[in-house]
Amino acid sequence: MGTAFAVSFFIMAACLAWPIATFAAATAPVLGEAANFSVLAKPTMTAANPTTISGFLGLSTGLAVTGTWLPVGHTEYLGPLTLAGTASADALKAFNNLAGQHSDGNLGAWGGAVSLLPGVYTEAADSNFTGTLTLNGGYDDVWVFQIGNDMTFSGSVILTGNAQACHVFWQVGNDATIASGSKFIGTLIAGNDITVVSGATVNGRILSLNGALTTDNNTISGPTCATAPTTSSTRYESTINVVKMVINDNGGTKTVADFPLFVNGKSVVSGVTNVFPAPALAYTVTETNSANYVRTFSGDCDVNGQISLSPGDNKVCIITNNDVGAPAITPVVPPLIDVVKVPSPLALPNGPGLVNYTYTLTNPGTVPVTDITMVGDTCSPILLYSGDMNGDAKLDVNETWVYRCATTLQETHTNTVVATGWANGLSATDIASATVVVGLPIVHPLIHVTKIPSPLTLLSKGGAVTYTEKITNPGTVALSNVNLTDDKCSPVKYLSGDINNNSKLENTETWTYTCKTTLAKTTTNTAVASGEANGFTVRDFAIATVVVASAVPKLPDTGISSQTGNSILAISILSGIIILTIISLAVMIFKRRKI
Amino acid sequence: MEIFVSLIIAFLLNFKLLVSDSSAQTISLPTNQVVKNEVVLGIPARLKIPKIKVDIALEQVGLTSQGAVDVPKGHSNGAWFNLGPRPGNIGSAVIVGHYGYWKNGTPTVFNNLSKLRKGDKLYIKDEKGIMITFVVRELRTYSPSDNTPEVFESNDGQAHLNLVTCGGVWNNVSKNYSKRLVVFTDKQ
Predict the structure, then answer these.
(1) Strand partners, A525
(2) For labelling, which of A65, A113, A371, B17 has a CA lying 20 to 30 Å from the CA of A539?
């Protein structure tokens, strides 16, 4: 696709949804001293009617301005030996930088309602614009307009999303005119004269390299500029999610509700995300435990249930309670559960909007899972859409349950869902998180990991277990620095999956890992997969339990009554003796007859 | 007397022929399918012990309500204890078989297990057709009530297969044998 066509397409698409495309990145030039000037000209500067400026006024080589410039007491630099001379030289460098940037396409005849992606747009000759120019983008997106000769702008520039005036630049080779009443945005650097007609406002700078500046009852301010929030800014909540698992492999009967949970004494509910102040060196997760259960911490908690929290962290603390009871010879088969969550859309670059979450629940184990619960924050209700094929309310091993939930996000948010199910007295849990960035054209990455132990059960004293982990990318951006750890098994070895050998996990790939260990008792371990993309780090958890029996089986009673066999043997022997006797008698009779 | 001698000779000849016919069913091993430790093995399907002419299908059993390993249902089958590792995987796999005679006089599959000696070989074919060879290490006799973790557990990182059956004297009152026989084998 030619660049001209590309630009035309986006102009035509002005009223449509913002298309996703890849453009050569326009960059903001270094303005040096010129950055502090609202207006700069060479020989003369005239305000036909009072003109308000927010920054410095500079004239070089002229030594005096004409008209009224407000506010009274503003800073003026007049003459080439003042800061205006330096600013003018810096403005020329910026002008040349802008002129040298690679063009993304020609403007041609343009006007009306125009919406442009960030990029570099060029018109070799004169350019006249009348209409509304909408620039939609993020905090750091840059627009550069290269006009070879004269430019006349009549109308308005509108910034949407998080586009900023400080990142819009106009490089005009000769004269520039901002028409009456226009609302102009950006830093305008013209080679020759600049005229700002009556009533026009400028959110930016008006810098003439070699010409005169004429204004008439204008306001030239700004350009406004804000720093893009980072992932650790206060826009991102710091959260702790405490997840309870219960193992009844020795006759216990307690459930999740039997273990009240607390973070620094504050009551919390298993699976529910809670916001806590950050930074904090250590929050302490506690519970009302039962004397007949052994507690272990995993996930982001240390062995004592302590968890640090930095701004923007979304931490997960897993508490597993295993019952202590009569030694069990038969190891009960533990359930497994797996949940994947994908938001749609993956980003809301234009600000707050509706997000639909789809949760896919599967059973990678060997026994049906019952009593499924889906606990999610910020989105309710989470409704089962399909998958229970036989309508038995059990997540069978061959079923895929699809849940959905819709919510409106006002700001960037990480949504976490905790899926829990039961089988044979044991709970199984999986956690899925997805972040939707609001107000920036940034797609947050997603990652997913599943873990299947083999075998799921072991006899007394345990034995070898092999965990097979598979990491996938349910998102749209490739993940770098993919890593997998397991709190109770090492080393975790990568086996295969990076098909194109680029060390990035694409959404078409499945990376397989394995880890072998020896278990002596029932063990719940947590694998954590992480990856990076677009400046974000994403994680996913996979939790699995292997049940180890606590007593040795008895030897089998394989005996069949020997009486039948002995009788047959006896009959056989007796028959043999009788036959031999008969034969012997026959031989004797035969011999006597011969005699 | 000559007739008697002839009968004896004929009997011995027939017996030899029978033995020869039986031994003609030699077991051929698909060497290209011999697995190493890392291969994922399927569920065991057949057990072959050439020395005692055992070539049987395998069922799967778990535990009885009394906590004992269960026994095969089929008269001519053995059974793999499916709560333990699969034969060929690291750990101690267990296969059980009946001992004694069925009502019709047919001998059960592990009647001659006690004839095995150290060095004898036996073979497991899994559901994928993969053959795994085991070598007898030792035979041990236990009382029915003995605690026998060594039968079900091992921690040497090797693959073992232990064959379990009954032995000793039949008790007409309790309807069981007085002993349990275990043949311990190691993966070749």
Answers:
(1) A544
(2) A371
Collapsing DSSP to helix, strand or coil, A121 comes out as strand
Chain B residues touching A583 at Cβ < 8 A: 3-4, 7
Q: pTM surpassing 0.80?
A: no
pLDDT (tens digit per residue) in A329-387:
777 899 999 999 999 999 998 888 899 999 999 999 999 999 999 998 778 889 999 99
d(CA A137, CA A142): 8
Task: Measure in Å the smallest separation between the Cα of B28 and chain A Cα atoms.
Answer: 30
- Domains of chain B: residue spans and CATH: 28-187 (2.40.260.10)
**Residue B105: closest CA among chain A residues belongs to which residue?**
A565
A123: nearest Cα among A142, A104, A140: A104
Domain ranges of chain A: 3-221, 328-548
Return the number of other C-beta atoms located less than 10 Å from residue A423's C-beta: 23
What does A467-492 look like in DSSP terms, one character per residue?
EEEEEE--SSS-BEEEEEEETT----
Please give the sequence-ordered ranges of beta strands (E in DSSP) within A393-479, or none if there are none: 400-409, 413-423, 426-438, 448-454, 457-458, 463-472
Q: Round the CA-based radius of gyration of chain A to a whole number and report it.
A: 38
Contacts A329 to B, Cβ<8 Å: 63, 67
Instruction: Work out the end-to-end distance of chain B between its first and last CA atoms, rounded to an integer number of angstroms.
Output: 53
Nearest to A558 among B7, B98, B107 (CB): B98
Task: Scan for tokens 């992932």, then name that residue.
Answer: A231
- Backbone φ and ψ of A229, nearest 5°: -70, 150
Cβ within 8 Å, pair A565-B89 = no
Chain segment A476-519, per-residue pLDDT in tens: 999 999 999 999 999 999 999 999 999 999 999 999 999 999 99
Distance CA A204, CA A164 (A): 10
